[in-house]
Amino acid sequence: MTTKxxxxxxxxxxxxxKKFAEKLLPKSLAVFNSNDIYPISADSTMPFQxxxxxxxxxxxxxxxxxxxxxxxxxxxxxxxxxFLRETNxxxxxxxxxxxxxxxxxxxxxxxxxYWLTDFDKIFKSLMYExxxxxxxxxxxxxxxxxxELREDRFIKKVQADFPMHNYKRSNPILQxxxxxxxxxxxxxxxxxxxxxxxGIRRLLNFVKPGVWEYEIEAELLHEFVKNRSKGFAYTxxxxxxxxxxxxxxxxxxxxCKDGDLxxxxxxxxxxxxSSDLTRTIPVNGKYSDRQKDIYNSVLxxxxxxxxxxxxxxxxxxxxxxxxxxxxxELLQLGLIDKxxxxxxxxxxxxxxxxxxxxxxxxMGLDTHDYGILTDDFVENMVFTNEPGFYIPAEGFGxxxxxxxxxxxxxxxxxxxxxxxxxxxxxxxxxxx
Length: 432
Hints:
It is built from 13 helices and 16 strands. By secondary structure, it is an alpha+beta fold. Helix 1 crosses helix 2 and helix 8 crosses helix 9. A 6-stranded mixed beta sheet has the order 6-5-4-1-7-8, with helices on both faces. The protein has a 3-stranded antiparallel beta sheet with strand order 9-10-11, with helices on one face. The chain has a 3-stranded antiparallel beta sheet with strand order 12-15-16, covered by helices on one side.
């Protein structure tokens, strides 16, 4: 099966499986399923997106795939098994190339590959050998999924068929493993960030009064797809004028007016890895004095956040520290006063009137990636850094965001360090 992106060396997935297998109890088997292809209506479907966990462990980017990891299986060939939908000439004509057994080995490094028709028989024999079964459910802190997944149906079936086994959760293991990136993963995230840079530079030459938000979206999509991306890593936010005060504005259907700002929260994906960028740019290529003051204040907050995205800090402490930074900047801007701070509700401090979201989240295979928030920051975790001030009374909001890799010591590495960010850089490029 061919993918848009260049094939990732199977050594990454071999390494990921080894890390996962080391965390399992003795006599344990773990199972992972692909995502479904979701229907729209009639015979229309959504474009396929692979479940990130099976992708992380195998590199298989295809529907109807199952991965079994059983480190203590008696026969060595049963320690890692892939089950794939059988391909044939008919499927190749109608749907295009699918993974052959040989290609699956090349992609994943897994030698034992069967067709799905053999799954029940083989799985049954493995289950008689295993004592613990690790099943996979999404336990991400932002998860709010109501759809039944292929994984959910599998969990129901296996627990009905084998009620006496000891069932365990694979997600806590994956949350920790996936939050710390391998060098190959950092390189893929860097490619996604570099594609985002291409899109932003293209836009700075394109934006002018009268342009529509959806035209900006189209420019970005063109730049991303022509560089081997599937497109956006998440639904793009192209928010001009007062729309910039809506945190998840995705309508992208307004005309951009002279004198307004446009908040662009956009990022390319590459090989299922995300990037996540925000810039707030002037429609006419020139910030007003007030817009510039707010922009530079948010930029100072971002620089302050950098010095706190360090090994040994943690998400909760980091956000408490950033609250103090926002309070101090908003006092300087005159948006809040000392009385507001003295009388604030500790559960909703005064600064929250203008900055109501978190400053950072894990990023990787998901834009809001896996990571346990109580864990300390360690080397090779990737975080966004995205302060913002939103001022509906003045008709605009400003957010600025880059993606960073935590280092073993000192400040984090900015994966987006080449993307224009200062008022001067943005104005120069928009007016060149």
